[in-house]
Amino acid sequence: MQTYMEVFGHLPTMLTPRLVLRPVRMSDAEDMYEYSRDPEVARHVLWDAHQSIHQTRGYIRFLLRQYRNAAPGTFAIALRDSGKVIGTIGFMWVQTDNRSAEVGYSLSRAHWNHGYMSEALNAVVEFGFTKLGLNRIEAQHESDNPASGHVMANAGMKFEGTLRQRIYNKGRYADVDLYAIVRSDFMKKS
Ligand SMILES: CC(C)(COP(=O)(O)OP(=O)(O)OC[C@H]1O[C@@H](n2cnc3c(N)ncnc32)[C@H](O)[C@@H]1OP(=O)(O)O)[C@@H](O)C(=O)NCCC(=O)NCCS
User: Fold this and answer.
1) What is the DSSP letter of 187?
2) To test the ligand 1 pocket, which listed residue (117, 138, 152) has its Cβ within 8 A of the most ligand atoms?
3) Fewest C-beta atoms under 10 Å: which of 2, 77, 111, 126?
4) pLDDT tens track of the chain, all 190 residues?
């Protein structure tokens, strides 16, 4: 098994039936700005809608730095048929001692409710267990963003509870629902 740093230093490209998950490139800026500027996409995430493509480029520079530093990384989500980047999914953090990690994601509103994020999260969960050797992968969503909870459940994650007023986001305290999948769940599922 490779170390976390070896894997994150060379993030692979993964194919799902309809998607390509691959490292982000600076040339993705236009596609990523197209949805990152949408306040509806940003409503339940911890970043604000981008005001200009310069902000998107700044975010991509951060992601490229994460690759260079072999830090927990993020995949671009591109459509296999057109190559268009419609979102991102990646690891927020990895705890080496506990072999656990958190995943986060966002998708262009034009592509919601086609099963794309469930497809992407399933692939990233499999990557986490088989390539990173994780024991636990968690994800959390604001309780008033139930679609994200469905995505987590579709990837085999189990609801573990609601963390009341866990975060202050966009002017209000938000309850957060915590989901996780552990290695033994994954072995049963696959
Ligand atoms: C949340 C998000 C990732 C979902 O992506 P997606 O590709 O549309 O998700 P999928 O199509 O794979 O699955 C959506 C699920 O939510 C359900 N859903 C959609 N809208 C819903 C709503 N208003 N209430 C309850 N469930 C809803 C769908 O029925 C589907 O569940 P099912 O497969 O059990 O039927 C996407 O909407 C998004 O990026 N939103 C903005 C950013 C964000 O919220 N990121 C997550 C932060 S935790």
Assistant:
1) H
2) 117
3) 2
4) 889 999 999 999 999 999 999 999 999 999 999 999 999 999 999 999 999 999 999 999 999 999 999 999 999 999 999 999 999 999 999 999 999 999 999 999 999 999 999 999 999 999 999 999 999 999 999 999 999 999 999 999 999 999 999 999 999 999 999 999 999 999 998 7
C-alpha to C-alpha distance for 39 and 59, rounded to whole angstroms: 17
Spacing, Cα 96 to ligand 1 middle (Å):
30
- Best of 118, 119, 178 to mutate for ligand 1, by most ligand atoms within 8 A of CB? 118
Query: What domains are there in the chain, each with its CATH number?
Result: 4-189 (3.40.630.30)
Rounded distance between C-alpha atoms, residue 145 and residue 123, angstroms = 22
* β-pairing verdict for 136-142 and 100-107: parallel
Amino acid at 84: K
